[in-house]
Known about the structure:
about 900 residues; about 55% helix; alpha+beta; 8-stranded antiparallel sheet
Amino acid sequence: MTYRFESLSNRKAIVDRRALAEAVAALPIDQLPVAATTLLRDALDAGREEIARRLAERPTRGLEAAAAQAYLIDRILQILFAVALRLHPDEREPIAVMAVGGYGRGEMAAHSDIDIGFLTRDTPSPRAAKVVETVLYALWDLKLKVGHSSRSLDEMIRQSKADVTVRTALLEGRFVVGDQALADEAERRFSDEVQRGTERQFIADKLAERDARHRRMGDTRYVVEPNVKEGKGSLRDLHALFWIGKYVYDVERARQLVDVGLFTSAEYRLFHRADEFLWAVRCHLHVITGRAEDRLTFDVQREVAARMRFRDAAGKPAVERFMQLYFLHAKTVGTLTGVFLAHLDERFAARGRRFGFPGIRRSPKRLKGFVLDRGRLGLPGDQFFAEDPVRLIEIFALADANEIEIHPLAMRAAARDAKLVDGIRRDPRANALFLDVLCSPRDPELVLRWMNEAGVFGRFVPDFGRVVAQMQFDMYHHFTVDEHTIQAIGLLARIEAGTLKEDHPLATAIIGQTVSRRALRVAVLCHDIAKGRGGDHSILGAEVALRLAPRFGLNPAETETVAWLVRHHLLMSATAFKRDLSDFKTILDFCETVASPERLRLLLVLTIVDIRAVGPGTWNGWKRQLLADLFHAAEEVLRLGHKQRGRSERIAEKQARLQAAMGWSDVALAKHVRRLPEAYWIAEPDDVLAHNARAMTAADTPLSIDAQVYPERGATLVTIHAADHPGLFYRIAGAISLAGGNIIDARIHTTRDGMAIDNFLVQDPLGRPFADASQLTRLKAAIEDALANRSKLADRLTAKPAVRPRADAFAIQPNVLIDNKASNRFTVVEVNARDRPALLHQLAQALFQSKVTIHSAHVATYGERAVDTFYLTDLTGDRITAAQRLKTLEKRLVNAASGEAIELAA
Length: 906
């Protein structure tokens, strides 16, 4: 019996092996194996229920639950093997049934794969194959997912030498039932013929395997929907440490890693706590989902937190407290990995290059008392930090300045002595060194991450320490707050260095014109530093910045700039993505807050790195275009003041450029201009004006639909030229949703001769342009059907399945904001709601029922939250000002945002 099973209390309650074996033995042979399978299925279900009950009672005892599951499978397998031998009594060839992999280690969640190996002395005979077949069919009848192999001893050795995956599985091999002597011989031969002399290669193979797995999983342990089994900082990383320790030192238990010097007792306790916690989370996941689910997705995070008895506290929801502890354990796993590899490195130092570390770039001769240990920054003595705690910051500054690594044992000492930082927070030298790292032109992201891993960053900047491992329970943010911030600083450094010029040409061009370089770096550090405090993090963060910036050595002017940037770091994105940039008052209001070209440049760069660091897929060509449009419009206002071109001048210039692009005569241009209202010329950019002109000129039918991919906008422009009539917009919006499109921007125009010219920017559900020919065909057909009323649009939309059911995990109360001050010509209505298919269609229906005219619509999506903004007038073209009418409009939109049906002919 494995040592893990020894600690299980009342094992008979999980499965009474003796009673079950007697019941199976009493069955007539002609009823085997069907009747036996029924008894075993009942025993399996009862055992799982007992394990789940124990887990509910002791929700943090993950290792106990994992061991209980393996114990249950052991007993089932032992009885099945006895059944197989009874069915094939002539079989006398020795067979050993081995548990391998995680099952061999004695750790399983409720729906984990059962990995077993059937071992024979020689090539399995036909009769031995029948025994194996009987066991496997019975396991499959029990609806168990089985990974299996059948090998002779020689095959086992040969395959172990050839395949590191097989070698790893057999490394944890454990005898379950059958011929014990055969299993013992297999263990001896594996040790003598496979392990001995191959330790270094095994370590290298496992580290390469780990690195590939990390890249596949996103290469960060701070992704907010982590994989508990395979992700960075997960159970698999802990297992890799144990595998290496077992392979090199023949340890049988994780605590023996202390005996062989790979961990201290304190580090083993951290290892055990992380192992216990992660196994508890994984076991809860399997119980909740009823399947082998190892991704801690949003829709189960809240339930796992509740089952593990987390509670709301200090203004932070239970789910965020639970996930913060998860990420702290994941961080611990990373720290332990570094220490573990350092010890192995010392043992194998003479045999070649180091494990898991890239080569050194330079080798400085003097490092202010620090020593170089095989190309890594180390300590001359154990009390080096205690003698001068400023060295806890200096070691990271030296690593950055000289582009070298820090020895893991020095990192261990920094983590141990991090509390000494408390006494040097106001030390001018320490703050100057920290600012050097923060403003580094090299790779501040890497060094700040090291500082964070060691716990020094959060100690030196306690406000930052409050957001370490803090997640935000939404589908928009992909990383924890600290990881998001560090990535944003790294992006800023790369923009400064010019390495992201292709992605961010405007930011790269203007960053060299900024004079407040230090202020921008500190602003990026502080922009989210006050999240999780229960108030507006922009306002609270500005207050933090006013305290921190002078401490870091910034002057009063720089400090004021930092505080302003933090206070308004969401202003530019909110304006660009949720307002109509063709409405000149939008630009004027924005400029009134920004007030200077320098702040405008700084704010643009801060906005870009903030969005990019949210996670993959959040930045796209459409956002780049909107931010660039806002920047250029605001720059002109700030540069020229009251001298900027007037509305009529800008319209005349656009009309002249259109005439040149189309090759029109003055008469042809005048004819086209007479058809279109003045607002049209302000609203549309030059390329869309030309595209619309061609569509209107070529139109020879009552309905013209054109779709054109706009790569620079990251979307497809859909232009519809049709006879205008009430409800046109909501029908088009519904049709685009049916075709699988998401509208991100819409501009609606009516010509003076009663035609509609509507421009929609459309993306697929993954934020890409509609580019495939079949997609465009389907899109056009859906719009034609909707406008011809060939089918009941509302019914087809209702039948369309939800694209992202995970959004159901979030409770978002619909909210409608009506603003008559944001525009001189329009009533601006902003609707916040949970994102779902056809939301825009339903909101447009409500607006149609309210008898208002939509002039433009702007759609921004933040994970599960959608923000749809409409620029409206009443049917006479005036703003909507009557209080009762605004109240009715708000009610209809709230109902539509909530998903309540609107009684309206489709």
